[in-house]
Sequence to fold (199 residues):
Amino acid sequence: MRAIVEARTGIEVKAVISNRPDAAGLAWAAERGIATRIVDHREFASREAFDERLALEIERLRPDFVLLAGFMRILTQGFVERFPRRMLNIHPSLLPAFPGLDTHRRALAAGVKLHGATVHFVTPALDDGPIVAQAAVPVLASDTEQSLAERVLAVEHRIYPQVVRWLAEDRIEFTGRDVVQVRRCGVSSDWIVAPRNPE
Fold:
């Protein structure tokens, strides 16, 4: 969230909403004059009830897009379908590899040579929506979960703001049900952003 705000992507951030009252991002946003909201999931009897309240808070703001950043809850199908092709998420793996949790541990255990991050549109299936951009980092022989996570986070902070900038510039288009392309100089092309090898 902070990386998106600081990148000055051309979008107006209407509010930061969290399900955790102690989330550090709430104070950070408030200090910068960004509206904040808390919808604590522990106050609701069911996932559906929480999602309904969260959706109402979002809809009051009438946003063009909903950007998930560090939001670690699985959203119900009913919630996701209220924001079709308008909700983005970032995931710490090169999807479709390693959806869900513990991505860095699983990548190391699998022995992959590349790992990374994916920005994708949210659909009801977990980490399965159309991919907008990915960034890859090499997996080094000396890597631990922490060292790999740090390098992946660095590229997350680059590609998510870039995708948001493309949204602001109306450059993202769906060319099929699950295919996303980014227009560049009037020509559609797929984008993969990769950093230089840190070694």
Summary: The chain has a mean pLDDT of 91.
